[in-house]
Design brief:
Number of strands: 0
Organism: Neodrepanis coruscans (wattled asity)
Radius of gyration: 22 Å
Number of domains: 1
CATH superfamily: Dbl homology (DH) domain
CATH topology: Dbl Homology Domain, Chain A
Number of helices: 15
Structural class: mainly alpha
Order of helices and strands: HHHHHHHHHHHHHHH
CATH class: Mainly Alpha
Protein name: NGEF protein
GO molecular function: guanyl-nucleotide exchange factor activity
Keywords: Guanine-nucleotide releasing factor
Pfam family, one: RhoGEF
Shape: globular
């Protein structure tokens, strides 16, 4: 029995520090982002929501596509692809079939929601994680468990968003986004498994800090009152990555319902959905493993106490 407990403890340590082994992935992403910024200075600061890409016609294929700057305009509030001024002025709405417009909206929602998610992650890091008062209160190990590998998650989201932005700026009608989802899921989304697997310890640490450190509780309350948080709690920001990976799966499902059968877009949507489902399952399994490990550690502590 003690041997099994030791194995579980080793497994726990391996999971808790798994994010460090993802460092090379993050460095690769950052290198790609830096290369992009050197070739296209404007591509370094995505902010909100997105445009789309066009199926060229004989009259427009040789023209430069309209630049839809929704991602970079933090004041934009367009929720629908067809409401974009660039789309309305192009006349494309009178050409596309209703089913294609619905598909455009589904793909547009995936991109704009990623932009919104990235902004929220950035707020979690800049407003909470990097707050100087909070840094002084938290022990490095507490901060590590509390924020886990959120910097890796944000770097992955940024790279993903840049690629989506590049795609939608190629033309005013979006050709596809699920091929990009697929590539990023298989190459970079393992950071979500690491983050979500640590959720059990993240929640426990947060509750303990609220209970044991009044200074922590006070600073968090003050930070939550900032208008930038829009009334959201600190814990609602911490859970963002888990919510995002599950929502991405639903967004791809929505696209899958609207693509034409036996088309290339259906094939890429199926591939993307399959890989996202694998990541979501791995996240859920990671949470279960960590929860079981925590229970075993708790039992071990009780046994040791009784023996003493």
């Amino acid at each position: 029995f003690s041997c099994n407990l030791s194995d579980l403890l080793c497994s726990l340590l391996g999971l808790l520090y798994q994010e460090y082994r993802d460092k090379s992935t993050r460095e690769e992403i950052e290198t790609r982002r830096l290369q992009d910024s050197q070739t296209d200075p404007e591509e370094t600061s995505p902010s909100e929501e997105t445009p789309s890409e066009a199926e060229p016609t004989n009259t427009t294929e040789n023209k430069a596509p309209p630049q839809i700057s929704l991602l970079r305009n933090s004041n934009s509030r367009f929720n629908l692809w067809q409401d974009l001024p660039e789309i309305r002025s192009s006349g494309v709405l009178s050409i596309l079939q209703p089913d294609e417009i619905k598909l455009q909206e589904a793909m547009f929602e995936l991109v704009t929601s990623e932009a919104s998610y990235y902004k929220s992650l950035n707020l979690l890091v800049s407003h909470f994680m990097e707050n100087e008062r909070l840094k002084k209160i938290l022990h490095p190990s507490e901060a590590h468990i509390l924020f886990s590998n959120v910097l890796d998650v944000m770097a992955v989201s940024e790279r993903f968003l840049l690629d989506l932005e590049q795609r939608v700026e190629e033309n005013i009608v979006i050709s596809d986004v699920c091929d990009i989802v697929y590539q990023h899921t298989i190459s970079h989304f393992s950071v979500y498994i690491t983050y979500v697997s640590n959720q059990t310890y993240q929640e426990r640490t947060y509750k303990q800090l609220l209970q044991d450190k009044p200074a922590f509780r006070e600073v968090i309350s003050q930070l939550e009152l900032d208008p930038k948080c829009k009334g959201l709690s600190f814990s609602s920001f911490l859970i963002l990555p888990f919510q995002r990976i599950t929502r991405l799966k639903l967004l791809v499902q929505n696209i899958l319902k609207k693509v034409e059968e036996k088309s290339d877009r259906e094939s890429t949507a199926l591939d993307a959905h399959k890989e996202l489902e694998t990541v979501v399952k791995a996240c859920n399994e990671g949470v279960r493993k960590m929860s079981r490990t925590e229970q075993m550690i708790s039992i071990q502590k009780k046994l040791e106490f009784k023996i003493k």
